[in-house]
Amino acid sequence: MLNRLLTALDQVLPAPTAHAHCDGPCGVYDPASARIAAEAAVSMTKKLLDLEVPDASNKAAYAKYHNTFSRYTAIKEQQAHLAKEELLVLWTDYFKPPHLEAYPDLHETFWKAAKECSAVKVELSLEHANGLMGHIEKIHNIFWATKGKDVPFTTVS
To answer: What's the per-residue H, E or C state across 116-128?
Structure first.
């Protein structure tokens, strides 16, 4: 009954068709979310590399070490994955053919950044973590240039 009423109403007063060039309203995209996640992965990588392995005969210290190592690793992997998700949304939803014309290496830049996210997850490497930050900085600069703005790349750490 309600369905027939709504169908009849739609025929009399049809709703206008909305068109958008992206999944969300313009202005909601920002590479800062990827940067923040990548910075967390860098931080966890540094913390993991700084952990001292205690003597195995000290069971309490050994258990604490493994617990801390596991937590830091989980956070590093979650944040690297989040950075990848944020980058992929930016790549697939914000950037359009005119951007690719202006920045011919755009696809390769994002591809390398996504691969670096995976490397940060798989390995315990400050080189990969810092490499990811470098890719995100390049994406940040391209993104803001497409908006005609000069927004400095700032990190928390």
So the answer is: HHHHHHHCCCHHH
